[in-house]
Amino acid sequence: MVSCPDRALLAALDEHGPVRVTVLAAELDAHPITITQSCDDLCSDGYVRRTTADTYVLTEDGREHLRTLTG
Length: 71
Prior knowledge:
Blueprint lengths: L5 H11 L2 E2 H8 L3 H13 L3 E5 L2 E4 L1 H11 L1
Antiparallel strand pairs: 1-3, 2-3
Helix pairs in contact: 1-4, 2-3
Organism: Natronobacterium gregoryi (strain ATCC 43098 / DSM 3393 / CCM 3738 / CIP 104747 / IAM 13177 / JCM 8860 / NBRC 102187 / NCIMB 2189 / SP2)
Protein name: MarR family transcriptional regulator
């Protein structure tokens, strides 16, 4: 499985707030299925939360994790 880099995905979610998979896929030049799989993995870690069937949002734990990846 090809994954989307966590830092890029978390940064996009941080910038946009709740955002649809198709928007993330276009911004990150990735297939929507890849984005969904990556977001689901990040949900398991508590960094991202699904708000609707195709929309995700960054959690506070996700923001903290993003700081460790960019700091």
